[in-house]
Design a protein that fits this description.
110 residues, 33% strand, 3-stranded antiparallel beta sheet, mainly beta, 4-stranded antiparallel beta sheet
Length: 110
């Protein structure tokens, strides 16, 4: 429910007291701790939800952590249900692989 600002500014809309409208989306532009470093290994991805968005996280073969949307664009299956193969995230359904930037780097049937 929208509320008018308690400051009396009719041009400032709020989604809750003292939380300006539009701020929740703006919060996506900041860094957030979501797991302890030791919770993220190279063997399997993990799923986290941040600001209502599902994220798949894993480490590549050099130990660098990566995070992408937890959804395969091919059939919308959770990438976190897949595995880490050669440092890349592989979808469990059809074996499509993604690098740390979220780019598809392997389509097995092509």
């Amino acid at each position: 429910m929208e509320q008018i600002s308690p400051t009396g500014n009719p041009g400032l809309r709020e989604i809750a007291p003292l939380i300006p409208e539009g701020l929740p989306l703006g919060l996506r532009n900041y860094w957030y701790p979501v797991r302890q470093s030791e919770e993220l290994d190279r063997d399997a991805p993990i799923a986290v939800t941040v600001l209502g968005e599902r994220i798949a996280m894993w480490r590549d073969k050099n130990g660098v952590p990566h995070a992408v949307h937890d959804r395969c664009p091919h059939r919308s299956i959770k990438l976190s249900a897949g595995r880490v193969l050669d440092g890349q995230l592989q979808c469990v359904l059809h074996g499509i692989r993604f690098n740390g930037e979220g780019r598809c780097v392997l389509i097995p049937w092509e």
